[in-house]
Amino acid sequence: VVVGWAAIATFLIETVTLLWIPAKEAAVPNLIPRARLEAANQLTLITTYGLTPVLAAVVAAVLDRSVRAIVGGDMPAWAEPAQLALWVNAFSRLATALVVAYGIKEISQGRADGQQRGEQSMFRQFIEGWRFIGHTPLVRGLVLGILGAFAGGGIVIGTAQFFATSLNAGDAAFFLLFGAIFVGLALGIGLGPMIVRDMSRRRWFGMSIVLASASVMTLAFAIHLSMAIVGAILVGAGAGMAFLSGTTLLGGEVADEVRGRVFAVVQIGTRLVLILAIALGGLLAGIGGSRTVDVAGAQISVSATRLLLLAAGVAGIFAGISAFGQMDDKKGVPVLADLWGSIRGRPLMPAEPFVSAGLFVVFEGGEGAGKSTQLAELAERLRGEGRDVVVTREPGATGIGTRIRSLVLDTSADDAPSPRAEALLYAADRAHHVATVVRPALVRGAVVISDRYVDSSLAYQGAGRTLPVDEVSWLSSWATGGLKPDLVVLLDVDPRTGLSRAAARNQAADRLEAESVAFHERVRYAFLDFAAADPKRYLVLDAARPADEIAERVARRVEELIDAAGGVDHPGPANGPDTPVQSELSPSELVTTERT
């Protein structure tokens, strides 16, 4: 009889829990600002899985001792530890219900408009939740990732006892590994957001699942308890970060009308998957045991437990990659570089989407490399073919750029900008230049030819001024919206030769030309390093070669790009009020642009 009543009570408790949890998770995003949703979930998870178990143990011990001290002698049935725990649970749930019903106005008052949704059966709402998940890539990726992670976790739990035995350890090792997972869980939930900082939460979710799954794979190869403990901590950390980011994304990205149903599907699905995975993992590990295989005369012990862990890790990695692919909101941005940049507080930015029908060509090089001459030659040739050509430069292609140019290059000013201020000024010029000149021309289908672009900042402010190149790169990428040229023509020249050419122009040297030879040497080799890192996008030419020969090679490469793109052959822009602002510099004006 007692067992029967316990079974009925357990069933009712679990049923109420399955109703309570989705309702609670669906309500939280409506009670706090979305920007604080992650912090709220973080606090909830740490409290639930970190503080509450410890506090429960302390309260249970204190109650037990207090009741024994009061009652003394034989303990009545109601004062047994299990009974006390049930009484505490019952009153705590009653207190929670009262707080929700009377203490949270947003919930207790119901719908503000007084309208109630039409009655639907529980089964139909569940099916609608599944249908919404199946038709929404973001939510589908989240749910599949969560279910995959719980399946892997179930395998780990189901095989944990056998795994501890395979390490020649007993129950103590099992409990140690179990505790290590919860330590990792707390670390992932508590420290994860601090580590990844502003990284896309969609990317973080998929990467967290991959981390946890890869750590499960390492458990399969652990030969010592210390290795297994490290792997278990990493498994917990990845699971904690995935749990936090997944819960936050579901709460923030799913509409209020279906959020509860989605959480219901997740709660039921995770429980089913977890139970099946634990049962299946323990069954297979018990049946498989350990076998000794003779391979080329060598006796190799093969454990079914380790094979299951390996399979669970591989399956989890595929689940994480699948979730990442469906949810990625920064397509084309390198994952590891984005992670490293986020850890350092500078996440990589995806390129701003726009349809380019033109071609973007940039001339780079040191002082006196002959960029202006070659740029003018190319522009004249393309215009002779009837193409729409926009000739521009940095800095100084716009009204704002002209003022910035005087600030950074004019030696007659009272004081020179500091290296960081100089980098920021160039970035400001570039942001305005790209927005008002380059992008509109590319959208129109023109060939944009620019005297200097991002690489000049990387070389002059990065290598020359010895600022961190990755910081300057991030700044320029943000300023340009990730816009990269189709071709960079690098005219390589010895700094002494180039400076001599610049001095022969009978013009006063600007701030950059007046720098030391060592400064310009650093700039030169920085340009060459950039070209070596991305040879397909660069055309490196010796600036000491005859100008006609250089012009011919440049024109040939540009024509190849135009042909590969299907031809960039558009009439010139019409003169009208809607014509985008463009920079048209004459060859005489370009003579003064032989600097960054």
From TrEMBL:
EC number: 2.7.4.9
Gene3D superfamilies: MFS general substrate transporter like domains (1.20.1250.20), P-loop containing nucleotide triphosphate hydrolases (3.40.50.300)
Compositional bias per record (Polar residues), positions renumbered to this chain: 580-596
GO biological process terms on file: dTDP biosynthetic process; dTTP biosynthetic process; dUDP biosynthetic process
Gene Ontology CC entries for this record: cytosol
SUPFAM superfamilies: MFS general substrate transporter, P-loop containing nucleoside triphosphate hydrolases
Record's keyword terms, sorted: ATP-binding, Kinase, Membrane, Nucleotide biosynthesis, Nucleotide-binding, Transferase, Transmembrane, Transmembrane helix
Transmembrane segments: 6-23, 43-63, 141-160, 172-192, 204-223, 229-250, 262-287, 307-325
One family name in Pfam for this protein: Thymidylate_kin
Superkingdom, taxonomy of origin: Bacteria
Residue span(s) of domain Thymidylate kinase-like: 363-553
Region described as Disordered: spans on this chain: 564-596
InterPro entries in the cross-refs: MFS, MFS_trans_sf, P-loop_NTPase, Thymidylate_kin-like_dom, Thymidylate_kin_CS, Thymidylate_kinase
Gene Ontology terms, MF aspect: ATP binding; dTMP kinase activity; transmembrane transporter activity
Reaction catalyzed: dTMP + ATP = dTDP + ADP
Family membership: Belongs to the thymidylate kinase family.
HAMAP family referenced in this protein's UniProt entry, alphabetically: Thymidylate_kinase
Name of this chain's protein: Thymidylate kinase
